[in-house]
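Kindly go through one protein, given below as sequence and tokens. The question is how this chain folds according to its tokens.

***
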Amino acid sequence: MSDGEAPDAAAIIARIDTDPVAARVWSEGLDALATGLATLTLLVDPEVIVLGGGVAQAGDAFLEPLRERLSAALAWREAPRLTTAALGTHAGRIGAAMLAFEAAQRPEVVRSWTAPVILAEPTPLETETRA
């Protein structure tokens, strides 16, 4: 990028049709991920692979070419189903919070957590209370 900052996944995805460098980065990234997932598949034979993080939020622009590459890498066997994480980019933080409550011997705190509740934006009162 011209400002010297490294682009995030969304910036690369937005440019893949018009910027040959972005298209190459995207393609090479998909190739590398497909190779890694093919290796994982051959080692542990998963039925499904759940992908999270910012890149996974690209939806079909990410999943369809990845499925094609993974299927090509596993030509002699069926590829596992690929899906994106329901918690998106929040999964790591939520998992860390769950582990913290468990370590504090308070596992009951997370039993009532549901995706809509934990992904909801905090209300102004909750935001003020946290500050």
The chain is about 55% helix and 5% strand. The longest helix spans residues 20-44.
